Amino acid sequence: MASSRELRIASWNVEHNGRGRSGDEDKRQLAHSIVKAFEPHVFFRQELTRAWDNGKADLYAEGTRLGLMPFMTRPPEGRSRNPVGIMIDPVLFDIVAEYQYDLPWKPICRLRVRIKGCRRPIELASAHLCHFDPDIRATEARWLTTLADCGRSVIVGGDMNSYPHTDLESETLPDWDTIPDRVHYEHRTIERDGKRVSDTRPDEILTGSGVFTDLGLYASTILDQSGALLPTASLTRTDQGPAQRIDRICATPDWAQTLTGYEVVATDDVKEVTDHGLVLARFDLDAVCRMHDPIR
Questions:
Q1: What residues make up the domain containing 51?
Q2: Inside any domain, residue 245
Q3: How far is 156 from 108, CA to CA, in rounded Å?
Q4: In what order do the strands lie in the sheet with 213-214?
Q5: Distances (CA, A) of 115 to 33, 92, 124, 250, 283
Q6: How many Cβ atoms sit within 10 Å of the Cβ of residue 77?
Q7: Is residue 161 situated within a structural domain?
Q8: CB count, 10 Å around CB of 49?
Q9: pLDDT, tens digit, for every residue of 50-74?
Q10: Are the CB atoms for 68 and 35 separated by under 8 Å?
Q11: Count of CB atoms within 10 A of residue 253's CB?
Q12: Is 184 a domain residue?
């Protein structure tokens, strides 16, 4: 592992687990190489398609390649077959508990961990909000806020399938009159004041009242990192309008003071694998440890 003074947390929707619809193993291996280069200590995964099959062989193969301990949700019968997961560095973290929450469309994966030598636990959650129903997305977002109850320290990474709600990014939201994919229009808009507008409700729920901090927005406005607000999806389709920042990492406000960097990785290799950029947040590990009550 690289210097223990930096904590790296990544989140990535690897479309159909890097195999696409044709089962291309080369793309999956390329995905592993891309992630390995960043050596994340926490990796929030979306679209672990078929990774539950064959004794979770694909899941463990990826964890071994990355040097991380992998966890994932069980795909629910008759619903989404693209589960989420979390992979963590077993050298840095102790596992306290593992949970799966069976929400209306797709389960959310949650781990409770501790940094070795610290007392205060950290809640980790990987989410892939419903792609077709804004009301389900709002319910999923409200559920995620429960993790922060009672002063818990939380980091959430995922594909939110919806848009940032702040004025800073409002001008970059889709012009729905120009979007050819009308199914996408039905999936990604809500009605407000008699008009159909971009669905920003999940972000309003998660960050609008201060339950969580949008770490990309914090990096852009407080740390002056303009690349933190680059779009993440779709990197390949043209019928759904310009790419948008739908993949995000957010955390309870205590984490913001330890953030040192935030970036969207959308290289040609990334586009070869999936239609989503990889999101990476960097933290001062010493500051994170102090925040979580080190054992003296």
A1: 6-291
A2: yes
A3: 10
A4: 93-101, 108-115, 122-128, 153-159, 247-251, 213-214
A5: 26, 6, 12, 19, 14
A6: 6
A7: yes
A8: 21
A9: 999 999 999 999 999 999 999 999 9
A10: no
A11: 14
A12: yes
pTM (global) more than 0.90:
yes
Instruction: Estimate to the nearest angstrom the gap between the alpha carbon of 182 and the chain centroid.
Output: 26
Among the listed residues 47, 75, 14, the one whose alpha carbon sits nearest the alpha carbon of residue 275 = 14
When pLDDT is averaged across residues 244-251 and rounded to a whole number, the result is: 98
C-alpha distances out from residue 272 to 29, 128, 277, Å: 12, 21, 11
Q: Is residue 1 part of a domain?
A: no
What percentage of residues in the chain have a pLDDT greater than 70? 97
- pLDDT tens digits for 237-247? 989 999 999 99
Name residue 112's beta-bridge partners. 97, 123
C-beta separation of 128 from 156 below 8 A = no
| Count of the separate structural domains present in the chain | 1
Bridging pattern class, strands 6-13 and 42-46: parallel
Rounded to 5°, angle at Cα 65 from 277 and 31: 25
| Average pLDDT over all residues of the chain | 95
Residue-level pLDDT at 18? 87
Q: Which two tokens stand for residue 46?
A: 């979306």
What's the pLDDT at 288?
Answer: 98
Question: How far, in Å, CA of 132 to CA of 237, rounded?
Answer: 17
